[in-house]
């Protein structure tokens, strides 16, 4: 049942974002920022954590889950380090994910020969 919940929650999030992209004039970069900020705000309000507990990767893998990770990291760091944690917590929480994305994309560039768009 965990796989099913992850699939339908993740699919619902992706479908809603696709509708947002299709029905508005928002550029993809702005939609991505909106998703990260929405994840952080929903986490701060205590709404997103139960969804992640219910859906697992279906709620934590989409970009809105990145905002959730940033918020959780900042919350923990603020409890430990005070105001300084506001600036360091998000980076500490997401460092492994961002680092692996950079490393694997760099390795993929050797295999697939990236080209500039015209």
Helix fraction bin:
over 70%
> How many DSSP E strands?
0
Main β-sheet, in a few words? none
- Helix vs. strand class: mainly alpha
> What is the ordering of alpha helices and beta strands?
HHHHHH
- On the 0 to 100 scale, the average pLDDT is 88
Query: Helical segment tally?
Result: 6
Distance between the amino and carboxyl termini: 46 Å
Radius of gyration: 16 Å
What does this structure look like?
By secondary structure, the chain is mainly alpha-helical. The relative contact order is 0.11.
Concise description?
Helices cover 83% and strands 0% of the residues.
Secondary-structure map:
Layout (H helix, E strand, L loop, with lengths): L1 H22 L4 H17 L3 H8 L1 H4 L2 H19 L3 H28 L6
Helix pairs in contact: 2-5, 5-6
List keywords for this structure.
118 residues; mainly alpha; 83% helix; globular
């Amino acid at each position: 049942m965990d796989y099913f919940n992850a699939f339908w929650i993740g699919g619902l999030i992706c479908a809603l974002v696709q509708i947002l992209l299709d029905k508005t004039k928002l550029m993809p970069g702005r939609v991505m920022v909106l998703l990260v900020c929405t994840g952080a705000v929903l986490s701060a309000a205590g709404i997103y954590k139960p969804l992640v507990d219910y859906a697992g990767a279906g709620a934590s893998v989409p970009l809105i889950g990145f905002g959730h990770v940033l918020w959780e990291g900042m919350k923990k760091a603020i409890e430990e380090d005070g105001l300084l944690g506001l600036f360091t917590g998000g980076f500490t929480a997401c460092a492994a994910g961002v680092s692996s994305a950079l490393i694997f994309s760099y390795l993929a560039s050797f295999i697939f020969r990236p080209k500039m768009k015209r």
